[in-house]
Amino acid sequence: MSYDISIRSITVDGFVSKVELRNHLVGLGLVADSDNHLLFQESGVTRADMDLAWFENGNYVEPLELVNCIQVHIPYACVETVLEKIVKQCKQIAEKWDWTLYDEQEGKYL
């Protein structure tokens, strides 16, 4: 179980190439362990993970070449210690691509 946040576009043209986005995220210090999956790590310990996705009509699907959403998953065991730090980094990512943060639990934009 995890606390989930989405970083996603709210416009139809708010997408980016998967390669460009993944390279940007790796440049921020995230660890890519596959084409569509990255890890937030502290001292080599995974604190959260994220999936690159395509969001359309309320559904998340695995992207092909373009991405308009990042799904962030924070294990409940880590929420108290890393939520604030991860939300801050997610806001920076959202600002870079002119996307927004969406709290999946609360069903509202942050």
Question: Which structural traits does this protein have?
Answer:
2 helices, Cell Division Protein Zipa, Chain: A, 10 strands, alpha+beta, globular
Characterise this structure.
The protein has 110 residues and is α+β, with helices and mostly antiparallel strands. It has one domain (2-109): Cell Division Protein Zipa, Chain: A (2-Layer Sandwich). 29% of the residues lie in helices and 43% in strands. It has helices spanning 18-27, 76-97, and strands at 2-8, 16-17, 31-32, 37-42, 45-56, 59-61, 66-67, 69-75, 100-103, 108-109. Strands 1, 3, 4, 5, 6, 8, 9 and 10 form an eight-stranded antiparallel sheet that branches. The chain has a two-stranded antiparallel ribbon with strand order 2-7. It is globular and about 35 Å long. 24% of the residues are buried.
Brief summary:
The chain has one domain (2-109): ZipA, C-terminal FtsZ-binding domain (Cell Division Protein Zipa, Chain: A), CATH 3.30.1400.10. The protein is built from 2 helices and 10 strands; from the N terminus they run E-E-H-E-E-E-E-E-E-H-E-E. The protein has helices spanning 18-27, 76-97; strands at 2-8, 16-17, 31-32, 37-42, 45-56, 59-61, 66-67, 69-75, 100-103, 108-109.
Q: Beta-strand level of the residues, as a percent range?
A: 35-45%
- Supply the CATH superfamily name: ZipA, C-terminal FtsZ-binding domain
The helix-strand sequence is EEHEEEEEEHEE
**If you compute it from the alpha carbons, what radius of gyration comes out, rounded to the nearest whole angstrom?**
13 Å
**Overall tally of structural domains:** 1
The number of helical runs is: 2
Q: Characterize the overall form.
A: globular
CATH architecture classification: 2-Layer Sandwich
CATH top-level class = Alpha Beta
| Structure class | alpha+beta
Main beta sheet: 8 strands, antiparallel
Number of strands: 10
At the third CATH level, what is the topology name? Cell Division Protein Zipa, Chain: A
Level of helix content?
A: 25-40%
Which stretches of 5+ consecutive residues score pLDDT under 50?
none
Gap from first CA to last CA: 21 Å
Task: Report the mean per-residue pLDDT as an integer.
Answer: 94
